[in-house]
Amino acid sequence: MSIERELFETVQKSLLKHKVILLFGARQTGKTTLLKKLIGPEESVLWLNGDESDVRMMLQNQSSISLKALIGNHKTVIIDEAQRIDDIGLTIKLVHDNYPEIKIIATGSSAFELRNKTNEPLTGRKLEYKLFPFSTKELINQYGVLNENRLLQHRLIYGYYPDVVNNQGDEIDLLKNLADSYLFKDILMLDGIKKPEKLVKLLQALALQVGSQVSYNEIAGLVGLDSKTVERYIDLLEQSFVIFKLNSFSRNLRNELKFSRKIYFYDNGIRNAMINNFSSIAIRQDVGALWENYLIAERMKRNVYNKNYCNTYFWRTKAQQEIDYLEEKNGNLFAYEFKWNSKKNHKTTKTFTSNYPEAEINIITPENYLDFVT
Asked: How many domains does one find in the chain?
């Protein structure tokens, strides 16, 4: 069954604007499936895969005339994993400028590489979109609120990758394969990474620190790398849509943490695959971290798809007083505390409320989370 993606209508309308479409997202998030549905079977489409060496050769150092000979009478050109192709930005520019009737869509599982190769040549010529694993809203639209509420604990463990959602019973094998694909097909090709075992240890360390502040120096000691290398690897992991950072919020107090960060995984299933822990929620010690990672990742999907532009943070003092998540938009501050146990009495720290009295405070639990993530 084909699940409708939130990006579908947005990209569909963009195809009419005579712009190059760049579609970013990790491998296996459904980029190709989305494009096949968008283009439809009746249209003449040339599909090119940047993972294939002969395709890379054909698209490098070509003139506009030779590119037109390659494209022939096709009305649409789709280039998968375009970041693998040298000078792809210039190649796309030549086609776009000389043959404006041809629609061009390029996908990339590395934002760092594809943006580097397309930013300058395609200035003013491109529209960019991100595709994530399925969102809670997409699955609610497909299966209904009752079904997704019943599967919440399952989603916290196995996440939202399309193959994982669509193949119940095979989740662990699929997630382990996905984790290996991330590490060894994409990231290790970036920037000449020579120590895959160190990258695995780094991801395992990050998985165990979800919801906690991350010190590059501390992780460097755990993994056996210097802190600069850790920082570089983390940047590459972020550009490859494995993890993302949340920085600390600071305005008023001397004891607020000003330069701290937390790191989250785009998908709970990948996080659990890295530490090989697929135990049920009932017996886990890290349910708070899973809940926090899930909520922040789903909120990010919601904000990106709805073009809800805001600054996002966490807040913490040296005395360990903390707010899990903050959004700052149009001068307004919204604070969120995440609690898995909705029966406990929850109080927000007075240090925060007294110093930011204008902030709207919300407690997010399994009883009310749908308003937050959809």
From this structure: 2
- Asked whether the beta carbons of 248 and 259 are under 8 A apart, the reply is yes
- What is the Cα–Cα distance from 89 to 106, expressed in whole angstroms? 10
* CB 324, CB 294: distance < 8 Å: no
Centre a 10 Å sphere on the Cβ of residue 176 and count the other Cβ atoms it contains: 15
Q: Are residues 353 and 236 in the same domain?
A: yes
DSSP 3: P
Give the domain extent around 150. 136-373
238 close to 245: Cβ distance less than 8 angstroms: yes
Is the domain of 116 the same as that of 179? no
Q: Which amino acid is at 205?
A: A
1 within some domain: no
Give the pLDDT score at 20: 95
- The pLDDT tens digits of the residues spanning 1-56 come to 689 999 999 999 998 898 999 999 998 999 999 999 988 766 689 999 998 999 99
DSSP, collapsed to helix, strand or coil, labels residue 110 as: coil
Whether the predicted model's global pTM rises above the 0.90 cut: yes
Q: Which of 144, 145, 178, 146 is nearest to 161 (CA)?
A: 178
Q: What does the DSSP assignment read for 66-96?
A: HHHHHHTT-SEEEEETGGGSTTHHHHHHHHH
372: nearest Cα among 304, 310, 306, 296: 296
φ/ψ bin of 180: left (φ > 0), alpha (ψ from -120 to 50), beta (otherwise)? alpha
The CA distance from 254 to 233, in Å, is 32
Give residue-wise pLDDT tens across range 243-277.
999 999 877 666 656 678 999 999 999 999 999 99
CA distance from start to end of the chain: 22
Distance CA 50, CA 107 (A): 9
- What are the DSSP calls for 120-157, one per residue? TTTTTTEEEEE-PSPPHHHHHHHH-HHHHHHTHHHHHH
**Which distant-in-sequence residues (6+ apart) come within 8 Å of 196 by Cβ?**
183, 184, 188
